[in-house]
Amino acid sequence: MIVKVFAFFVCVMTRTTIVTKVVTFTLPLLGLADDTCGQKADVVFIVDTSRSIQEPDYKKQLDFVSDLVTKLNVGPDTTHVGVVSFSTGAKGEIYLQDLNHDIPALQKTIKNIVFTRGRTTDTFDGLELAREKMFSQARGARPDVPRIVIVTTDGNSTNRAKTKHQAQLLRDKDIQVFAVGIGKVNLEELGEIATANTPDYVFKVANFDELRNQGPFIVLQACKAITTTTTTTTTTTSRTSTTTLPTTTLPTTTTTEEPIKVCSSKVADVVFVLDKSGSITSTSFQTQLNFVSDLVTVFNVASNHTHVAVVTFDSSPKIEFGLTDYYSTPQIQKAIKAIEYTAGSTNTDQALELVATHVLTPAGGARKEVAHVVIVVTDGQSASPNRTQQWAREVKKGGAYVFAIVGVGSGIDNAELMTIGSTPAKDFVHTVNSYGALQTIKNLLAVKACEGESTLSRGSYRSNTATVNCKKSPDAADVMYITDFTHAGGSDVRRNLDLIKNVTGGLGVGEGRVRVGLTSNNCPDVGDIGLEVANSAKDFANAVTLSGSSATPLTNILNRARGKLTVVKEGAREGVKRLAVVFVHGPIGDLKLSSREVLRAKSAANKPGVEFIFVGMGDTVDEKQLQQLSGERNPSTVRMLVDKPGQLQLTWENVLNEICEVLVPLEE
User: Fold this and answer.
1) What local confidence, expressed as pLDDT, does residue 614 receive?
2) How far from 77 is each of 74, 81, 505, CA to CA, in Å?
3) Spatial CA neighbour of 257 closest among 226, 301, 216
4) What confidence score (pLDDT) does residue 22 get?
5) Burial label, 399 (beta-carbon count in 10 A; 0-12, 13-18, 19+)
6) Quick one: which of 79, 62, 232 has its CA closest to 148?
7) 590-604 exposure pattern, b = at least 16 Cβ within 10 A, e = fewer
8) C-beta separation of 267 from 417 below 8 A
9) Which of 5, 35, 442, 549 is an S-S bond match for 206, by CB 3.0 to 4.6 Å?
């Protein structure tokens, strides 16, 4: 289980006293919980063995591949793994038929792949060999399973045009290609190699140490590709629409797969809305309940984690059980199996109204600070399409993701389903041919639902929907974010930056009042943003970019920030409040020097001095070090606000409120 514990240490300095707040909360990362992808596929790794890689880094690359193998459910009847190496030319190291019965032997063989130190980086040869030999049936490739390629490289290919051509030939064979670049690689070329030039298929890390941290995220994306590859798109004829939606067809022979367990570190309020109208047979209704019961196991149900509710509808809706009724998976499964089949008309609108007005409300047990996910299962057009659309809009307007609409059977109205589900439809709207086929999309829906939780709970930037602002508009102030990513993984970096963007959205940036900037150091390097660059929160969000690596000590970035905040020649304004928000992800190696920089900023000759908020992120942060960094000797001046890890009671909104207390002090 991948969970990052974020500790927020907020130091609020007034003119006469310095008050330090310590705020700790858990922010989930996108990761895999019970190790395996749970899917069947043919997966080929293409690894760089050219001499531009140092031998210790080459071993780290092989460790990365070996780690990923343990997540892919390798076995004779499940996932098969192959490996190609390339530098000057390419070589098939492990074929898909070779070692699928023995994972330890597979890992040992991977770690023993010879480091050739070739003079060139012939990526195109690796891609060609994968297409012609690795994915041939003679070498163990199977015709009926998804095919995945994961390329890792630390440099630009010798011949970009040939590499692009060979990548296209791979993709033409319906092979999903992921590209992982380490160090100073050409992102455009990675995008040409991958299935799509998007963060779902292209990954860039600063160095080989960071590569291993990206493993769980890459596996999750591969699992998505595996599940979606088995989903075909067909045109379904409905009563009033010919809208095309993704349709999953039931294979002639099926096996029951365990759902992908990616949600154990996520927190959400999940509401199932189930159709029990007369158009469904009692047998199909029972199949629907079994599907929901299985899907519940994906979520980490507990009083301080995910809560689940079920609403049913026919002629009238009913809350079978609410969000606060059960706090364990067995209890919920028992309650689901006890739901009675009643038959009646299809009043979907009334069910959605019940969700909006009763279930997803504070009185109904809904929590404001967690993700809200609604999953609707229906087999027919609603009795009141206009009202259904209206109440679906209300549910989504309230902040919920109507995350997966599963249309069942031939009587559905695809156009109506698209108005019920969130957008884009390809992620939130799915159809199947029968209730029996529900099981075939269980894992796909699990991935999508968990993504919804991550998107909502991690605080992705929403430029025009900030829900929290300072209660009073701050006077003129300069705010500098300082991010020390020395001990941060790639996912930590993304979520830290998302949090910063969200906080900025509530500060009223622009109009000559609040200015924001950012200075950073490492893993990866986030380009500095001067205080004069952004005229709005949106400008600031667009200016945040990731580039290469630069191992800069915290002392140096504190020094840079001090200059930007206090030196007029570097863009500082005179007579405005100055605030530095320092994000630290682990032990501080240069603590004494960094502490001196903090004290220099506080006592800057060009008054006023800089006030500080210290933010500790991750479970390796040393609270005593942050206390020393603040320069405060007397613990009695420390005002602490501590949240227990796992409760998720504090979000970016709370962090924004703490910043607001510094910028807009409460009047006596």
Assistant:
1) 84
2) 8, 12, 50
3) 226
4) 34
5) middle
6) 79
7) ebeebbebbebbbeb
8) no
9) 549
- Please write down the long-range contacts of 572-577, taking CB distance under 8 Å and 24 or more positions apart: 572/478, 572/531, 572/606, 573/476, 573/478, 573/515, 573/531, 574/606, 575/476, 575/608, 576/475, 576/476, 576/477, 576/478, 577/474, 577/475, 577/476, 577/477, 577/478, 577/608, 577/611, 577/662, 577/663
Short-list 15, 446, 69, CA closest to 266: 446
For residue 330, cis peptide bond before it (omega within 30 degrees of 0): no
Pick out the chain residues at pLDDT < 50: 1-36, 230-262, 453-468, 522-525, 547-550, 636-650, 666-668
- C-alpha distances out from residue 125 to 46, 114, 181, 306, 424, Å: 10, 17, 17, 47, 37
Domain boundaries, given as residue ranges, for the chain? 3-29+460-663, 42-229, 232-457
Separation between Cα atoms, residue 370 and residue 269, nearest integer Å: 7
- For residues 347, 351, 353, 356, the Cα torsion angle rounded to the nearest 10 degrees is -160
Specify the fold of 3-29+460-663.
Rossmann fold (3.40.50)
In terms of Cα–Cα distance, which of 226, 260, 273, 228 is closest to 246?
A: 228
429 vs 419: CA distance, rounded Å: 10
Which residue's entry shows tokens 């797969």? Answer: 257
Beta-sheet strands, E only, within 228-329: 232-235, 244-248, 268-275, 307-313, 317-321
The amino acid sitting at 618 is G
pLDDT tens for each residue of 74-131: 888 888 999 999 999 999 999 999 988 888 999 999 999 999 988 899 999 999 999 9
Q: Answer whether 248's CB lies under 8 Å from 432's CB.
A: yes
CA distance 154 to 207: 9
Second-level CATH architecture of 42-229: 3-Layer(aba) Sandwich (3.40)
Cα dihedral: 389, 394, 396, 402 (round 10): -50
Fold agreement between 3-29+460-663 and 232-457: yes
Model pTM score: 0.39
**Residue range 232-457 in CATH 3.40.50.410:** yes
Residue 179: how many other CB atoms lie within 10 Å: 26
Separation CA 376–CA 404 (nearest Å)? 7
**pLDDT computed for residue 556 by the predictor:** 86
